[in-house]
């Protein structure tokens, strides 16, 4: 497997950060795309982004994102 370009990973993580605060449904819809071989982003990295954004987005928005992540990860 070739290395994932760091720009692709950075773009995906930035998009996740941008989506999380105001659009938990969109986060849920896109989590499978974030966690795959095209981005190289791990589950742990997704959870870390959600936890870091909680400070800015608020706990309710982050809890929605965590719930969406749990749902997406269990369906894999």
Automatic annotation (TrEMBL):
One Pfam family hit: CMD
Protein name listed in UniProt: Carboxymuconolactone decarboxylase-like domain-containing protein
InterPro entries: AhpD-like, CMD-like
Domain Carboxymuconolactone decarboxylase-like, residue spans: 40-70
Gene3D superfamilies the record matches: AhpD-like
Organism (species): Chromohalobacter japonicus
Any one GO molecular function term: peroxiredoxin activity
Highest classification ranks of the organism: Bacteria, Pseudomonadati, Pseudomonadota, Gammaproteobacteria, Oceanospirillales
